[in-house]
Design brief:
alpha/beta; Dihydrodipicolinate Reductase, domain 2; 2 domains; Rossmann fold; 19 strands; 10 helices
Amino acid sequence: MSAVPTAVPTVALAGVHGFGRTYVERLTARHRAGRLRWTAAADPRLAAGEVPPGMPGDVAAHRDLADLLAHHRPDVVALATPLHTHADLAAAALRAGSDVLLEKPATTGLEEFTTLQRIAEECGRQVQVGFQSLGSDAPAHVRARIAAGRIGSVTGYAAGGCWQRPRSYFTRADWAGRRRLGDRVVADGVLTNPLAHAVATALAVADRRGADDVVSVLVDPHRVNDIETDDTTAVRVGLRDSPGLVLAGTLAASEAGEPFVVARGTGGRITLYYTLDVVVEEVPGRPPLVSRHDRTDLLDDLLEHRASGRPLLSPLAGSGAFTRVLDAIVGGPAPRPVDPVRVRAVDLPGGDRRLELPGVEEAVAAVLETHRTFTELGVDWTR
């Protein structure tokens, strides 16, 4: 079962459906180009013959990662599995001698995170966390512009977004919309899963990515949908030796828009639209400066690290601050249910339905502008 040394790294994938399909596409393209050798995949649905389109026929199929690792020793294991499985599966892959590309969030709690760090160090292996926005050159560009004094002294950081999710999103799996599933933390909330990139990217822009960089977290969670977790939340984060960060997001917007991170200063502001890799720098009296930035695929970055030792763009340690925020959200107050009379239901094709909270976009904007939570602003959707 020992891996045969080769110049072309072997890669295995756990989770080929759902978001895992993006990994299928990426691995297939690199496999065909000879940049890696995709040797095996694990997914319960593979055992039932549900093979995703495009998956090469010579990829060995297994029912789960344990079975895969009993037959293969891949150089890299990519994990695109449910959130609450990340810590255990990553630990198993590390102990088998593989480096890991782990979808975000790396873990669903700070204790798991610390344990996984220790295991990676003991095994001498690397974990790259799948915050794709951290593969962009844009956060470093923003930090450089701030350091050059382009917006004066930074007074605060903010990040958020207004998205929409239909009922089917919250019923897509038994863990969807859950804080916990049995004795496992799931953390499928608005800022810990769909808009997690806003949080991680804001912490990267502030250059505060370590677990010890977060000194306080105040959470103000709400839920529009009939779920266990939060879908509309504001969070204020105190950062070590840095201006503070405020976060606000919703999955119940009437009109979805681009999520963003903004650094405000005494002489202007810089906004990063992280899904677009676009930065807009605004200084009073000058026209806005717009720049577009390249992005490195985090799989390619991990392979390059293995070849040259170049530091990872999204290493496990760099998710420490994010995980501390996640931990505070999950361990904080239960989401407050929004009064149904304030909610508008929109019927969608195929019998699906989406709930909207009129005025939530303005409330999110107010949080990001004032650094005050919904409750502190007097916004009360419960009556």
